[in-house]
Specification:
Chain lengths: ~300, ~450
């Protein structure tokens, strides 16, 4: 065993290493650790938002919110929205990526245009969709009534289940290009020999998709699902602008509830308690998901 | 134990940020030494292009008279001002002057020490020039004025299409709910709906429905500010609102101010509910119906009940955290200088009505084309607004309600409407739960 003392040079290298990593640690603490601890700390107070003055209430905010039906209802709504929009994003995204992977006319132009919904501002996208959905002047109602499919305009955003379906569809439209980009990039790296071998074995297009393409996409889909699940779960602006959480609380997800507590009711302590709970829910899903994928990897 | 945004060292978060800002500022001294300019930030949700043009005139006049002072206009919105101001107050980055917010919003802020008393500005404008009682709504419990009105508004006027009324055989403006329903039923045809009442989950639904409760002879709070929703009047109001649903466009379930005015102005509905902004919008966007519109106070359960006009008392106030209070007060008083004030009122004729008697009597104000075209309507709106109320000031017998802004912001009343009208839930249960929710806000 050759245990030796650190040389001066090694100690200097260690110090240099610490110095080099210090800025990253500082930034990490400033933008992640401090807000996190601050949020947990705030959630233990009853705080009036405009003044940030408040009283210590301990875990009372948590007890109150967990006893409130509104929290559980919003959590359920949040899950419906997340699962619904994410599923459609994956289906549309993979489908469109497969189309754009083919040797079609204007492929480059189509690949550029497909990114349009993702890059457009959410506010602009929502305004456009609200006009499309409009009961009096919207093109959707106009075309459907013109075609004789409906007698009266459909109320897309003000009644259930239309409001939830509309929000999920707009969400899927807005974010599916992310899936397209990621899947398309992966499709281009799948070796052609795998398809050739599958053809020789007599596999048709559907069999090739399920036996070659999908397994090859698995890793990238894991990342996509993980990222998009996090982003969709905390989605605020699109839902808030489209329906404001209505009708009643039918499309009110947890981020909208946080906003309502913080800025409509001026209860910043309660709002941060909701936010902390949201973080814990996400954490639970993340841990379960990572464990599951690790187990599958091990098989 | 209390929380006041302080770190354990006793250094406040704002202090720490201030120190950081001061350090940055110090570094910039050689470059900024000659710049001694005071900048006033002015927020308002009323920002139609013509209004902004009038504001720019007022700003230019003020800057010319006060060298070294610059005024920057920033837009907020009717639905968005509360969160924006909450963020501004909590960060200390407040505007120096805010206009056109409803009076009940300021009372909440003043009660929490966030608003500067306005007494000296009212004196500078000329207290005697205001209409009698115009500033009562701005009087706080300590006797100070928290702001003043920059105008009056009659926000729930009923707008009517006289041509459609004649076609349908409706010979007079409806005064009761039964008459309104009958008129709307008669006029609802050929793709035109009866009314654009709001059923959305927003402040317009809350504010309009508060008026409907009063039009049924009820109130939200009693004169001791106890919740007084659980009455027959509220049930009658909900029943009326439910019965009107089939006479409104399908999308009214999501209507707020913008959609409601557009529905009437575009000709999609036979009646409307809005302020006098309808006049300007019709002239600009649908002049074909300009000779066929008029307005009346919104109908009520019976003619035994007096009309109840919702006046949000568009205000002017100065945040207590402003670093330029003196300049802001001077600018606030300047906003009432006749030339600029009249330009501002003319930017949306009939929408924001003058609060100063001298302005209303000023020939320059009366000369406006739209005001001259609709003298009866403008007169009616002015009279209705002068006797108007809102949730912060439900009647002359009510004290100022400091929690009114939060009650409206909570959406509890809009939720009540949606649950009963759209979901068909039991009215008694919903009224009970809404009362409990509002009581919790009052206690909170």
């Amino acid at each position: 065993m050759a245990h030796t003392k650190q040389t001066l040079l090694e100690r200097r290298y260690s110090l240099l290493g610490l110095l080099l990593i210090a800025p990253t640690v500082l930034v990490f603490c400033a933008v992640i650790v401090y807000p996190l601890i601050s949020a947990i700390y705030l959630s233990l107070f009853s705080i009036y938002t405009p003044t940030l003055d408040g009283e210590w209430v301990g875990l009372q905010n948590y007890a109150t919110l967990l006893a409130k039906g509104e929290f559980w209802y919003s959590l359920r709504t949040n899950l419906i929205w997340t699962v619904g929009t994410l599923s459609l994003q994956i289906v549309f995204g993979i489908g469109m990526a497969l189309v754009l992977h083919q040797n079609i006319w204007f492929r480059s132009l189509a690949r550029s245009l497909i990114l349009f919904p993702y890059f457009i501002s959410t506010v602009v996208a929502v305004l456009v969709w609200k006009w499309l959905f409009n009961d009096l002047y919207g093109i959707l109602n106009h075309l459907m009534m013109g075609a004789g499919l409906i007698e009266f305009p459909i109320d897309y955003l003000g009644s259930m289940p239309n409001a939830m379906v509309s929000v999920i569809l707009v969400g899927a439209w807005k974010y599916f290009p992310f899936v397209v980009i990621a899947v398309l990039a992966r499709l281009q790296t799948i070796p052609g020999q795998l398809y050739e071998a599958a053809r020789i074995d007599g596999a048709g297009p559907i069999a090739r998709f399920f036996d070659v393409t999908l397994p090859q996409l698995r890793e990238v889909l894991v990342v996509i699902v993980m990222l998009r699940a996090i982003w969709d779960f905390k989605e605020f602006d699109l839902i808030f602008l489209l329906t404001g959480g209505g009708p009643v609380t039918s499309t009110q997800t947890l981020p909208l509830l946080v906003y309502k507590e913080a800025f409509s009711l001026n209860q910043m302590g309660m709002a941060t308690a909701y936010a902390v709970i949201m973080m814990l829910i996400m954490l639970v899903f993340m841990v379960l998901y990572i464990r599951r994928t690790r187990t599958e990897d091990g098989l | 134990m209390t929380y006041s945004a302080k770190l354990r060292t006793g250094l406040t978060r704002r202090g720490a940020l201030g120190a950081l800002a001061a350090t940055s500022a110090l570094a910039a001294v050689p470059f900024r030494a000659s710049a001694q300019e005071t900048t006033l930030r002015w927020w308002s949700p009323q920002a139609a292009p013509q209004q902004v043009e009038a504001y720019e005139f007022q700003i230019a006049a003020f800057e010319a008279a006060n060298p070294g002072v610059r005024v920057v206009f920033e837009t907020t919105s009717d639905e968005g001002y509360a969160p924006q101001l909450a963020a501004a107050f909590s960060s200390g980055e407040v505007p120096d002057i805010v206009t056109h917010l409803p009076s009940f919003a300021i009372q909440s802020y003043y009660a929490n020490g966030l608003v500067e008393p306005f007494n000296d500005v009212i004196e500078a404008i000329g207290a005697d020039d205001f209409y009698p009682g115009a500033n009562d709504v701005f009087k706080a419990a300590d006797g100070n004025y928290v702001g003043t009105g920059i105008g009056n508004s009659a926000a729930n006027m009923m707008w009517l299409r006289t041509d459609l009324m004649a076609e349908a055989g409706v010979d007079k403006a409806p005064e009761t709910w039964d008459e309104l329903r009958a008129a709307c039923q008669a006029m609802q045809k050929n793709g035109i709906y009866g009314a654009p009442l709001p059923y959305g989950r927003n402040s317009m639904t809350s504010l309009i429905f508060i008026g409907v409760i009063h039009q049924a002879g009820g109130q939200v709070f009693d004169t001791d500010l106890n919740v007084a929703l659980d009455t027959q009047a509220t049930r009658d109001a909900l029943e009326f609102y439910t019965s009107m649903r089939e006479l409104c466009p399908p999308g009214a379930t999501n209507y707020s101010w913008g959609e409601a005015i557009t529905a009437f102005v575009s000709g999609a509905t036979a009646t409307g509910i809005y302020t006098g902004r309808v006049l300007g919008n019709v002239a600009a966007q649908n002049p074909g119906i300009a000779d066929s519109i008029t307005c009346a106070t919104y109908p009520r359960l019976s003619t035994d009940i007096a009309p109840w006009t919702f006046n949000d008392f568009p205000s002017v106030f100065i945040p207590a955290q402003s670093q330029n209070k003196d300049a802001a007060k001077a600018f606030a008083a300047h906003l009432f200088q006749p030339e600029g004030y009249i330009k501002q009122l003319h930017a949306a004729p009939g929408h924001v009505l003058p609060v100063l008697q001298s302005i209303n009597n000023n020939p320059q104000y009366q000369e406006n084309e739209i005001i001259q075209k609709y003298p009866d309507e403008v007169e009616l709106m002015a009279a209705s607004a002068a006797g108007g109320f809102n949730l912060g000031y439900e009647s002359t017998a009510h004290p100022s309600n400091e929690k009114a802004g939060e009650v409206v912001g909570s959406g509890a009343i809009a939720d009540m409407v949606q649950r009963v009208v759209l979901n068909g839930e039991n009215a008694d249960t919903v009224i009970g739960e809404t009362s409990a929710a509002i009581e919790a806000i009052m206690k909170g």
